Each structure stands twice: as structure tokens, then as C-alpha cells.
Amino acid sequence: MKPEKIQPNPLALIPLAVFLISYLAVSLAAGDFYKMPITVAFVLSSVVAVWMSKGGGLHSRIELFCKGAANSNIMLMVMIFILAGAFAQTAKAMGAVDATVNLTLAILPGNVLAAGVFLAACVISVSVGTSVGTIVALTPVAAGLSAQTGISPALMSAVVVSGAMFGDNLSFISDTTIVATRTQGCKMSDKFKTNVSIVMPFAVLTTIIYVLIGSGAQSAFVTGDIPWIKVLPYFIVLAAAVMGVNVMVVLLGGTVLCGLIGLLTGAFDVWGWTTSMGAGINGMGELIIVTILAGGMLEMIRYNGGLAWIIQKMTARIRSRKGAELSIAGVVSFANLCTANNTIALIMAGPIAKEIAQRFHIAPNRSASLLDIFSCFVQGIIPYGAQLLMAASLSGVSPVGIMKYLYYPYLLGVGALLAIWLGFPRTHSQPAADGAMEA
Length: 439
Known about the structure:
With 439 residues, the chain is an all-alpha fold. The protein contains 21 helices and no strands. Mean pLDDT is 82; it is low at 429-439.
């Protein structure tokens, strides 16, 4: 069915335009980026993709769409999302999130509260793998500390968002890490090593900035009990992931360990455990649906020459790897601005980035790292993204008011551009084996 050589064709991008109009334009007109469900926007664009595609009759075009939707990379991401949802919700029901919050707050330096909350948000977000979950857990605490110490609530909210985006970018169980590594075909451990060498200096610099801004305020909170056994699963999951254990094994093992600890501590019974796993899996439903629809739509766009046209235009004047890396950064940043969802942006930009990376001999872990960094940079500063909207809602300040204190996301973007300019770090890696997702 496929032609031997795909010719660049800008008309193949019409489904993408339909998505942008139905989601971005409608949301802007309504003044609310959550009025138009992103699943509906993808359904509309997918219907258009099948309707206008070449490749034979309707049945053949639908088969092509399903082939893209059922791509092994897409299906593996779906399985990982399922296990990540089960693990995250089981850990929360067992009390691991509360225990981790209490642990990190208990060790905060009392006279550098803002920096301490930033570090707490970093630890929690790396542990739980979700920026929104970190914001939900920690923003009410930060708002209370603001009221007790006189520190600006906008500053404290920004501190939480900054730390949350740090973990969203680096966590082994984060949606963005999973998608970035899978679309580029690299190991999570390789991407992590590349990623952390770029972002860590700016995380340290952000900590120093928050120390200077928030110095003099005394901590006035009282932490709850810290049941260490409930924090154990996060340490084990992180250690196993760093050691290179397959991510599906890590998530499955983490879910079982959380369940057993929950049973032993009386946090839930067997049925409470299964209910938690079910709730976590169901919570991934929208992301799974969007991933499948996006896979099918992007296959139609690729088959009809849309991706070839984008790559042709973006690489026409590129003469170096630096230019190619900047184009990767531009693709995912634009997608994120349009969707206000860094995971979806990565799903859409990943195939384009991989083509560019292969053409200019960019290591898969390098392209995966750049994709993840720039998606988190954009997601962390847009006032209509879920992170800032959630933080603003919980703290009672405006998203725009929070933006001026988002030092880490801004430094993250600057740091990534410097890494491209300096060619740092030098990256060498081999793609993960087909059909095998390694942590």
C-alpha cells in the first residue's frame, strides 16, 4: 500500500489544521482551554485524515489509520500508561504521597523556606512522576506557609510549579519521559543521564535564587507522622529504574509492593487495592485515547507526505547539528503552545524529531532529552496550562501573577539553548531494541 518514496505534500497537514482550529481556536474563543475536550478535537481531525487520505477505498484507509494507532510504540506506551496509573493511584491510596510530603517538609531548613519547598517539590515530583499531582499535594501546604510567614503566595505557588516541572522532566514514571524515550527509541537511563547533566546546574541556581528571595522567613508548619515503610516503594522504584530494570517490571513491582504495604498497614483491604488500581488505570483513559487517535492521525499525515513536507521545510536551511537541534526544540515548543499539554505535544512532535535526528546523526538520547526539556519549559510557563491553572486555583492568585517567579522553567529553557550552542553534553547511545522498553 505504501509508495516507495513519499513525496512532500502540505495538503496532508489539513487534519493537523483541523485539530488546531477545533482545539486551539475554539478554546481561545471560549476563553477556556478545557471547554473543548482534546479527545473530541482528535476524533474530528482523525475523521478528516481518513476522509481525505489517498490509498484506496475507505476500508483500506481505515486499515492504514488502525495500523498507525496500533503501532508497537503506541501500544507499548499505552501499556506503560496503564501500569503507571495503577502504581500512582495505589501509592496514593496506601499513603505514600502524604508520607513523602511529610518527609520532605520535615527536613526543610527553617530559614530558607522557599528554597526548601522547591526542593520538596523536586523530590515529590520525581517520586510520583506527575507535575499536576505534585502541585495538588503541595500547593495547599505552600499557601498555608505563605499566610504564616508573609511570603508572597504567588512566589510560593511558583516555587511549587518550578519543582513540579523539574520532576516531570526527569522522573522515570513521568508521561513525558515515557513518550520522549519511546518515540526516539532510546533507553530511559541514557536519556536521564543526558537530561540531568543539562538541567541540574540550573536547578541548583534556582535553589540559590529562592534562598536569596525567601531568606529570613521562618518555617511555621508542623509535619505529620512519617511512616518510613510507605516511602519505601518510591526509593525502590527510582533505584530499579536507575539500574536499568525494564520500566514495565519497575511499575508492576512498585504496584505490588505498594499493595502489600497497604494491606500490612491497614490502609486498604484487597478490594480497596483493586479499586485503587482500577481508578488509576481509568484515570489514564483520556491520555490512552488521545495517544491511539494521535498515532492513527499521524500515520495518515506521514503516509500522505505531511511529515516529509515539514521536515523538508524545517531542514532546508539547516547546515549543522545545532540547527537540527534547534528545529527539534521549535517543533515541540510550537506543539505545546497549541495543545497546552506537554505529553500530547511530545506524541505529535516525536516522529518529526526522530526523522530530523536520524538525518543529522543526533543520538536518540540527545533528541529525547531536548524534546522533554523544551516541552516542560513551555508547559511550565504558559498561563493556560493545567499546572499554572491548578496552582492559581489552589492558592487564590492569578496564573499571570505566578509567572514572574517561575525561575526554574525560564532557566531550563535558557540552559537547553546553551546546551545546543555549546554541544553539551557529548552524547553517545544506542537505540533500545524494537519492542523492548528499557528503563
